[in-house]
Amino acid sequence: MEADLAVDDRSGQSDTGLSRLWRSDIRPTLALGLPLAGAQIAQMAINTTDVLMIGRLGAEELAASVLAFNMWMLLWFFGMGIIQAVIPLGAQARGRRAARDLRRTVRMGVWVAVLYCLPAWCITFFAEEILVALGQDPDIAEIAGGYMDALQWSLLPALVIMAIRGFLTVMERSQIVLYATLAGLVVNAALDYVLIFGEFGFPRLELVGAGIASVFTSAATTAILLIYTSRQRQLKRYAVLGRLWRSDWQVFFKILRLGLPIGITLVAEGALFAASSILMGWLGTIPLAAHGIALQLASITFMVPVGLSQAALSRVGYAAGKKDFDGVGRAGWTALVITVAFMSCFAVVFWIVPAPLVSLYLDLNNPQSAEVLYLATSFLAVAAIFQIVDGGQIIGTNNLRGLGDTTVPLIYAVIGYWVIGISLSLGLGFGAGLGGVGIWSGLAGGLAFVGILTNIRFYRRESLGLMS
C-alpha cells in the first residue's frame, strides 16, 4: 500500500488514491448497516402489531399491556446491552483470525443470556405485586401480571437472538437478520390474531394469547438464525454453538466487563425518554399526545443510525483486531458521515412536510386534533436537529465500543442525559416557559454533549491508548 501511495504522489493523484480508500468503506458500511436498520424497523412493526390488536380488547387491557411490556423491555434492554459486547469482542477475534476465540465469545454470549434470565424471571414472576407497589390500579396490575406470566418466557429467545445476531453482524451476514425479523413479524401477526381473539377454532386467550404469540415469535426467529448459522457454508465451520455446555469463564467475564456499561447506558437512555414523557405530562394531555407522535416519528428514522452504528461497532472492532489503525479511523468516520447525511435528509423532511406526517396518527375530525397537530409539528422542528445529534452520539459511542472502551462513554452518557439533558429540559421547558419545545431542546442539548465528547475521544484514540 505504501508503494502504491508513493506512485500516486509522483503522478500527482494522491487525492484520488485517498478518496478511493474512503469510498471503499462506504459500500460495506451500508451493506452491513441498512439491513440491521431494516430489522430494527421490523421489530418496531412487531410491537406495533401487538398494540393495535390488544387495543381492540379495550382500554384496560391496553393499559395493562403497556405496563407489563415496559417492564419486559427494561429487562430486555439491559440484557441486550450486556450481550452486545459479543460484537466488538467477536469482531476483534475475527480481525486476529482467531476463529476459536470468536466461537468462544458467541457461546459465552448465549451463556450470559441464559444466566441473566434467571434473576430477570425472579422480577417478572412478581410483576403484579411490583406494579401495585408502584401505585398502579390493582385490577390493571392483575391483568398485567397475567400477561407477563406468558410474555416473560420470550425473554430468553429474544436475548439468544442478540448473541447469534452479534455473530452474524461480525461475519457481515446482516441480511438474514432482516429476513428472520420479517418472518417473525408475519408469525406474530398471525398468532396474535388467532390467539387473542380465538379465531379458526383456537381458544380466545386475549392478553395471554398475545404473550404466547411473543414467545413463539422469538423462538421462530431464533430458529431461523440458528438454522442459517449451522448450514451456511462459510459459517457452519465456526460451529459457534458446538459444545455449548462447555464453560469459558475468562471470556464470560470479559463479556460482562465490556457489556455491563453498555447495558447501563441503554437503560439510562431509555429512562431519559421515559422521564421526558413525564415532564411533558406535567404540561397536559394534549402536549403529551403530541410528544408521543413526534417521538414515534423520530424513533422510526433513528433506526437508520442504530443499524449503521452496529455496523461501525463491528467494522471498527475488526480493524482493531487486525491492528489496522487507519482502517479503524476509516470505518468510524465513514459511519459518522453517512449517518449525518441520512439524518440531515430526514431533518429536511421534518422541516418541509411535518403536518402530513403527524396527520397519519390523528383523526382530523376530532376537535382536539388541531392543537395536537400544531404542537407535534413544532416538536418535529426541534426533532430535526435532535436526531442529527442523536445519530452522532450513537455512532461515536459505538465507535468507542468497537475499541473495547465502554466505561468512559457510560460516564459521558450519565452526565449528558441526566445532568445536562434533564436540567436543560426543566430550565427551558418550565423556567424559560418554552413548554414542550423547551423539553425537546433540552434533550437535544444532552445528546449533543454526548455526541461531541464521544467523537472527540474517538479522534484522540491513539493518544489515549485505546488502540493498544
Question: How would you explain this protein's 3D organization?
Answer:
The chain is mainly alpha-helical. It folds into 2 domains: 21-247, no CATH class; 257-468, no CATH class. The protein contains 18 helices and no strands. The protein has helices at 2-11, 14-55, 59-83, 86-95, 99-124, 127-133, 138-151, 155-170, 174-197, 207-231, 233-236, 249-283, 285-321, 325-352, 354-359, 369-402, 407-431, 435-459. The protein is globular, with a radius of gyration of 23 Å. 50% of the residues are buried. The model is unreliable at 1-14 (pLDDT under 50).
Unreliable spans: 1-14
* Total DSSP E strands: 0
Assembly status:
single chain
Radius of gyration: 23 Å
Strand content: under 5%
Give the averaged pLDDT, no decimals. Answer: 88
Main sheet properties: none
Report how far apart the termini are. Answer: 22 Å
Task: Provide tags for this entry.
468 residues; mainly alpha; 2 domains; 18 helices
SSE topology:
Layout: H1 2-11, H2 14-55, H3 59-83, H4 86-95, H5 99-124, H6 127-133, H7 138-151, H8 155-170, H9 174-197, H10 207-231, H11 233-236, H12 249-283, H13 285-321, H14 325-352, H15 354-359, H16 369-402, H17 407-431, H18 435-459
Helix pairs in contact: 1-2, 2-9, 2-13, 2-14, 3-5, 3-7, 3-8, 3-12, 4-5, 4-8, 4-13, 5-8, 5-12, 6-7, 7-10, 8-10, 9-10, 12-13, 12-17, 12-18, 13-14, 13-16, 14-16, 16-18, 17-18
Please provide a brief summary of the model.
By secondary structure, the protein is mainly α.
